[in-house]
Design goal:
The chain has about 130 residues and is an alpha+beta fold. The protein has 4 helices and 2 strands. It folds into 2 domains: about 55 residues; about 50 residues, no CATH class.
Length: about 130
């Protein structure tokens, strides 16, 4: 069978079974569109989650001494950590739990103590309303 005969035979089959041919083309088009939409939706969701994690500081690593240990980090330890390849910044801070009382309301919370320049790096979404 020659190529021209095969093409003629194909068009004849399409004319004879027009509804079947149209439904097949529509089904393929819908299936392709759905796959593209699902892949795009998945990629968008992935990007959204990644951005939210980065906003929360998921790219930050906090190194703490073991619980109950009397060991504390000193300036030499901070300097050694800052020399590790890939480390962009080392921000030492002190963390403790405390009961915060104001206007007859008591809340348990954490108190972070660090230099003012580190606050924006540690807590990028924090807005200080008063003070430094």
């Amino acid at each position: 069978m020659e190529l021209l005969e095969a093409i003629k035979y194909g068009f004849k089959a399409l004319r004879e079974r027009r509804t079947r041919s149209i439904l097949t083309v529509v089904g393929i088009a819908i299936g392709t569109a759905l796959i593209i939409a699902l892949v795009a939706n998945g990629q968008g969701l992935n990007d959204s989650i990644t951005n939210k994690l980065l906003e929360l500081g998921a790219n930050n690593i906090v190194i703490l001494p073991s619980t109950g240990s009397s060991l504390r980090f000193n300036d030499a330890d901070v300097q050694k950590i800052s020399l590790i390849p890939g480390v962009e910044a080392v921000l030492p801070f002190y963390l403790t739990s405390a009961t915060i009382k104001y206007g007859g309301i008591s809340l348990n919370g954490r108190v972070y103590a660090t230099d003012p320049a580190s606050v924006k790096i540690l807590f990028p979404q924090l807005q200080v309303l008063q003070g430094t």
